[in-house]
Amino acid sequence: MKILGIGNAIIDVICRVDDNFLKKNDLTKGTMKLVNQNEFKALTSELKIEETISGGSVANSMVGLSQLKNEVGFIGKINNDKLGNEYEKGLKKEKVKFFYSKKDEDAPTGTCLILITPDSERTMCTFLGIAGKINENDINIEAIKKSEITFFEGYLWDEGHPKKAFEKAIKSSKKTAMSLSDKFCVDRHKSNFLNLVKNSLDITFANEQEILSLVDTNSFEEAVSFSKNLGKLVVITRGEKGSMAIKNEEVFEFGVQENLEIVDLTGAGDLFAAGFLHGYINNFSLNECLEKGTEMSSKIIQKIGARLS
After folding, report:
1. Which range marks the domain in which residue 86 is found?
2. Which residue of 76, 141, 183, 203 has the fewest CB atoms within a 10 Å radius of its CB?
């Protein structure tokens, strides 16, 4: 395998609703809300499911890489329930090898309920379920050893069992990459993320907000200087300012594609990482890696959801 992803296994459940459903359930249109199991059950009990898609940040990247004809796999924790079976089936359909043996758990498979109103707005309710409870026993060492790169998501990192799972996986990896995922994640785990970036990761993906938070600065120049001194590869996405790859003293920059009809930003970072990693494992130059990442993220933001096809 070229790349093995380890992340939150979240199944996207897509339903069409009217505006009254949002009002009745006190949901703010266009936002994402974390819900507990009872709230989730109450919401889904009155809905007709249109579609289920195997999602989660790193899983989206793995699907993107698979669609670019790379051999990839994924480890994510699911329950042996209806949605868990749907999740596994969905990844396999996309030719992503799934290295996790599901069993009966005390919490259901993680789910993100995507409510689409007639105006095409998406309102999301996420119940993490068993996804966030990954532990070291869930890590398939053989799969890691057979991969050129192990790719993690910051969303998954947490003290306790997930931390031990990360450590076990990193120890057996040939090369490691991670997306910092979200400024909230960086703020919450700053010293641990700094330690990972400095000592354990070969490639770090971040957006501008995340890298500024990690370095604890308002100055982008300072963040670039920090990245140069690492001696690792740091890839930064900057919205309309394009993207950047920093390796030692070298800085590569790439602009954005113009005149895009942006429909939905879901999966933009995930597909950028897929494009960049596709280039990296196929020996593209760093500039070409940035170009491929930009091409993939530009395609995904012009359609609904995090799947190109």
Report:
1. 3-7+57-107+132-300
2. 141
